[in-house]
Amino acid sequence: MNKIVCHYTSSDAFVNMVNTGGGINGELTFWASSVYYMNDTSEMTVLYDELIKIMPKIEKELNLSDNLLSEIQSTSRLNNGLTIGDVVKDLFYRCIFRDVYAISFSDQIDTLPMWSMYGKNVNGLCLVFEMEKLNSNLNENHKLKEVYYSLEKGPAWDYLKEKYKYYYEEESNIGYRWIGFITSVLLDLSGRVKNISYDYEQEYRIIDHVIDMNDLLKRQVNLNMIDPKPSEWPAYISEADLRVRDGLMIPYKKIKFPLEFLSKVIVGPSKNQTLQKEALRVLLKRTHLKEDDFILSNIPYRNL
To answer: How many domains would you assign to the chain?
Structure first.
């Protein structure tokens, strides 16, 4: 069965999504915001910090004799007193991570916490999609992928063990082994790890992560450390622009999908539900959507 995911948004944002260019043109235009500006303030640190914390557990489960993390931190100091780990961490925080943009989806459909956080305090909309259709419009680097709230279980844990084992077996130099493993994981999972406090969201993300090579060169970064090499911008993703919210400038990119990918629209449990549904019918009556595809949330809610 095809997995269903949804995107909670405000009514005005949705109107802008379908009315790009002054009228309905068969596309939905999403704004992928810089992950650096997301509401989880640990987005920048949680991936690296959790990865460092569980490296000894990976070694133990793989029954390896080395303690790669402790060796690299204690013996491989550079001329300025920093470890290789310090340098990679700084590279990640100051350069690589800042080029990550994401659109958020969830498999939690019509739930009150999601309405409250992302549905304009229950006055917004929940846009429902089939994951397979969304991914059909994306290349492999941008496909909708699960967000992890722990690296110690499930697919994330299996991935880390496999990646660690690969670099352990392929690279004899302990420094290169550590750099290869850590940079590979940071690139693969950038924007895909969040604090456990947000696990109620059960989030999936479309992530655009095109590293700005000019920015790295300005910072005198050794580009041989970056693997895999950055990809080109796909035609359906724009270059970064800025929007302003509450006086704060926020970088974002536009990502377009065919409007026909939208399966249903759920109207938030506000007092104006019925009027919102009628407005949707008027706006989208010339599209593939039928009146039955505009659904009222069944959550009993009253804002006193």
So the answer is: 1
- Residue 57 has which token pair? 């557990």
Q: For residue 21, what are the domain limits?
A: 4-296
CB 263 within 8 A of CB 273: no
* pLDDT tens for each residue of 252-275: 999 988 999 999 999 999 999 999
CA 275, CA 292: separation in Å to the nearest integer? 15
The model's pLDDT over 88-109, given as tens digits with 9 standing for 90+, comes to 777 777 666 778 899 999 999 9
Cis before 56 (ω within 30): no
126: which 2 tokens?
Answer: 């929940």
Rg, C-alpha atoms of the chain: 22
The pair of structure tokens assigned to 96 is: 């690589």
CA dist., res. 33 & res. 96, Å (int): 15
Which residues, listed in sequence order, are joined to residue 256 by a DSSP beta bridge? 29
Please indicate, yes or no, if residue 304 is contained in any of the structural domains: no
Question: Under 8 Å CB-to-CB from 197, ≥6 apart: which residues?
Answer: 40
Q: Is the residue at 303 inside a domain?
A: no
Q: How far apart are CA 94 and CA 70, in angstroms?
A: 24
